[in-house]
Design a protein that fits this description.
- The protein has a domain of about 30 residues.
- It is built from two helices and two strands.
- It is flat.
- The N and C termini lie far apart (about 40 Å).
Amino acid sequence: MTFFFWLKILTEAGGVVTDAAGNALDFSKGRYLDLYKGIIVTNQRLMPSLLKAVPEALQQTSSSTL
């Protein structure tokens, strides 16, 4: 089964799927999501918390690898 199948099931069930910045995933450039720093899959209630936490975690990760 393709990702689109699971994406449809998740969104129909009230789930939310975005990139790490909160933008909708853009599949128009092909099957690879090279520019994304991650994909968030959660529910409506937790999305604001995750959208705040993910950039902070990415910043900490990039700082610790320098």
